[in-house]
From TrEMBL:
GO CC, alphabetical: cytosol; mitochondrion; nucleus
Name this polypeptide is given: Thymidylate kinase
A GO term for molecular function: dTMP kinase activity
Role according to the record: Catalyzes the phosphorylation of thymidine monophosphate (dTMP) to thymidine diphosphate (dTDP), the immediate precursor for the DNA building block dTTP, with ATP as the preferred phosphoryl donor in the presence of Mg(2+).
GO terms (BP aspect): dTDP biosynthetic process; dTTP biosynthetic process; dUDP biosynthetic process
C-alpha cells in the first residue's frame, strides 16, 4: 500500500436512532479535522438494483423474501469496487447501514436462519468499526410515528433488535454499542472518538473480509 488506507465505519441501529444525522455529522467533523471522509448508505437507491429495492420498500412492488434479501446483498457487492478504491485512496467511508441490517431485517421474517441470511455477504469489505445506536422501543416511540415504508412497524422492529443483538456477539468485529437516547451533540462526540481511534488502527492494516 502506497498510502495509509481509510477506515470503513458502519452505523447500524433500529429506525429512529438517528443514524443518518450522525453519519452526516461524523463525515463533516472528520473532514474538518483533516481526515478525508465520505458518506455512503445502503440500500443505495440510485442504482438499478437499488431502484428495485426502493420500489419494494415503498410498497410499489412486491418481491419474494429470498429474492429481495439477495438484491440487498447485490446492492452492496455492486459498490465494493468503488468502496475499495476510496479506502485505498485514504478516504474513510462512513456507511449508513450495511450487511448487519441485511441480516437483521430478513432473519426477523419467519423461516430465515441467521446463517442463510449472512452467506451472501460473506467476504464484503470488513468494517473497522460498527457503531450500534441503541434505542429502547419506548424511546423510539416518543420520537414520533414510524413512516409508511415496509418494515416500519413496531413489532417487527422489536424482532429486528433481537437479531442485531445476536450479531453483536461476534467478537471478530469491533462493535461499539452507544446509547442513542443522548443529545445529538453528546452522541456525536462519542461516535467521533470511536471513529478516530478506528481510523488510526486501520491505517496500516489491509482491508479485512467480513464473516470469513
Ligand atoms: P433506510 O430507511 O435507512 O433507507 O433503510 C431502508 C430499509 O431497508 C430499512 O427498513 C432497513 C431495510 N434493510 C434491509 O431490509 N436489508 C438491508 O440489507 C438494508 C441495508 C436495509
Amino acid at each position: 500500500m502506497s498510502c495509509r488506507r481509510g477506515a470503513l465505519i458502519v452505523l447500524e441501529g433500529v429506525d429512529k436512532a438517528g443514524k443518518t444525522t450522525q453519519c452526516k455529522k461524523l463525515v463533516q467533523a472528520l473532514k474538518e479535522s483533516g481526515r478525508p471522509a465520505e458518506m455512503m448508505r445502503f440500500p443505495d437507491r440510485t442504482t438499478k438494483i437499488g431502484q428495485l429495492i426502493s420500489a419494494y420498500l415503498e410498497k410499489k412492488s412486491n418481491l419474494e423474501d429470498h429474492t429481495v434479501h439477495l438484491l440487498f446483498s447485490a446492492n452492496r457487492w455492486e459498490l465494493v469496487p468503488l468502496m475499495k478504491e476510496k479506502l485505498e485512496q485514504g478516504i474513510s467511508l462512513v456507511v449508513d447501514r450495511y450487511a448487519f441490517s441485511g441480516v437483521a431485517f430478513t432473519s426477523a421474517k419467519p423461516g430465515f436462519s441467521l446463517d442463510w441470511c449472512m452467506n451472501p455477504d460473506v467476504g464484503l469489505p470488513k468494517p473497522d468499526l460498527v457503531l450500534f445506536l441503541q434505542l429502547h422501543p419506548a424511546e423510539a416511540a416518543q420520537r414520533g410515528e414510524f413512516g409508511t415504508e415496509r418494515y416500519e412497524v413496531g413489532d417487527f422492529q422489536k424482532i429486528v433488535m433481537q437479531k442485531f443483538e445476536l450479531l453483536m456477539k461476534d467478537p471478530s468485529l469491533n462493535w461499539q454499542v452507544i446509547d442513542a437516547a443522548k443529545s445529538i451533540e453528546d452522541l456525536h462526540a462519542e461516535i467521533k472518538t470511536h471513529s478516530e481511534t478506528a481510523i488510526t488502527m486501520a491505517e496500516n492494516q489491509p482491508i479485512g473480509e467480513l464473516w470469513k
